[in-house]
């Protein structure tokens, strides 16, 4: 199956005379990428030249749609004989700002190489095929696995703890690379056929600076967001730890966080009233509670990983 000739017709297309051609946009993207290469953002790890990750859309065989979100649609596909995931962005009319956002996401994801972080393979940079190509994860998201698939009975305590360790190791690597994810949630944790979990979707991520950061946009998903992000306060990588605590809660209870509560109510009560999900009984309860403490009191990924190992030993 091939991708429809114009998957975004329903959004209304801009006339050819009102926007640059695909070739001109690719030139602009390459120029933006070269600026990123020259910036301080590239200091943590050398980034690949533009031509080494730029993929022509004609090289892809696009199959069935496997997901859709706020930023785009995800298709299963084949590239160079390998199963891949192809994220086609809904916004194809590139402005200078979202062009830079696109390149920044690529710069962040391409510097991350870890067994528990989704593998970036390349990107297509010519509208209307602006897209990102990553490895394909057969079992979908952790959110789907727990709440939709009907397979949660297969999630033994040992398997759940292993999944949490996977997420923690991936997040630990992300933080060591001086990156804050800002949208850690079960829907952004993908599971392969071996039940290995990998963190994905770095569209809201930021490079860590020497002082707490501030962003005027409320980033993230309400049910998983740290209160300091909701309040647009300065934040550190500890905002990801709060979100990790919500995933722990999900895997502990196998319930949806804040089910039945409107998102705007979640935002208000978490940010202004200090509301938290009910702490479950059992070995993870205390650790979840610590993840939801004030930012400077939350444990690091290293501490959480050590605690998870201890919890598994205690259950043996």
From TrEMBL:
Binding site for ATP: 87
Gene Ontology biological process terms, A to Z: signal transduction
InterPro entries: Kinase-like_dom_sf, Prot_kinase_dom, Protein_kinase_ATP_BS, Ser-Thr/Tyr_kinase_cat_dom, Ser/Thr_kinase_AS, Ser_Thr_protein_kinase
Transmembrane segments: none
Catalytic activity, as annotated: L-seryl-[protein] + ATP = O-phospho-L-seryl-[protein] + ADP + H(+); L-threonyl-[protein] + ATP = O-phospho-L-threonyl-[protein] + ADP + H(+)
Annotated keywords: ATP-binding, Kinase, Nucleotide-binding, Serine/threonine-protein kinase, Transferase
UniProt EC number: 2.7.11.1
Pfam families: PK_Tyr_Ser-Thr
Residue segments, region Disordered: 1-24
One Gene Ontology MF term: ATP binding
UniProt xrefs under SUPFAM superfamilies: Protein kinase-like (PK-like)
Keyword Transferase part of the UniProt annotation: yes
GO CC list: cytoplasm
Ranges for domain Protein kinase: 60-313
Coiled coil: none
Family indicated by similarity: Belongs to the protein kinase superfamily. TKL Ser/Thr protein kinase family. RAF subfamily.
PANTHER family to which the protein is assigned, alphabetical: ATP BINDING PROTEIN, SERINE-THREONINE PROTEIN KINASE
Protein name, per record: non-specific serine/threonine protein kinase
Organism this protein belongs to: Trifolium subterraneum
Taxonomic lineage from the root: Eukaryota, Viridiplantae, Streptophyta, Embryophyta, Tracheophyta
């Amino acid at each position: 199956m091939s991708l429809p000739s114009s998957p975004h017709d329903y959004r209304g297309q801009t006339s050819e005379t009102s926007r640059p051609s695909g070739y001109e946009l690719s030139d602009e993207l390459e120029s933006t990428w070269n600026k990123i290469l020259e910036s301080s953002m590239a200091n943590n790890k050398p980034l690949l030249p533009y031509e080494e990750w730029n993929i022509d859309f004609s090289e892809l065989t696009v199959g069935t749609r496997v997901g859709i979100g706020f930023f785009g649609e995800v298709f299963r596909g084949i590239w160079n004989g390998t199963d891949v995931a192809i994220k086609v962005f809904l916004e194809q009319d590139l402005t200078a700002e979202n062009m830079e956002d696109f390149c920044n996401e690529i710069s962040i994801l391409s510097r991350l190489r870890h067994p528990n972080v989704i593998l970036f393979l390349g990107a297509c940079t010519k509208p209307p095929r602006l897209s990102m190509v990553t490895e394909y994860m057969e079992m979908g998201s952790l959110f789907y696995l727990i709440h939709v698939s009907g397979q949660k009975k297969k999630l033994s305590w040992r398997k759940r703890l292993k999944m949490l360790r996977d997420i923690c190791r991936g997040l630990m690597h992300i933080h060591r690379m001086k990156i804050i994810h800002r949208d850690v949630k079960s829907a952004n944790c993908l599971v392969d056929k071996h039940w290995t979990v990998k963190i994905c979707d770095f569209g809201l991520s930021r490079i860590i600076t020497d002082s707490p950061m501030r962003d005027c946009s409320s980033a993230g998903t309400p049910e998983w967001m740290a209160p300091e992000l909701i309040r647009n306060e300065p934040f550190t990588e500890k905002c990801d730890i709060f979100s990790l605590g919500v995933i722990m809660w999900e895997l502990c209870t196998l319930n949806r966080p804040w089910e039945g509560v409107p998102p705007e109510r979640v935002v208000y009560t978490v940010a202004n009233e200090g509301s938290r999900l009910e702490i479950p009984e059992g070995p993870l309860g205390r650790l979840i509670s610590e993840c939801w403490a004030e930012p400077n009191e939350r444990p690091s990924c290293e501490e959480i990983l050590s605690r998870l190992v201890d919890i598994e030993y205690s259950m043996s």
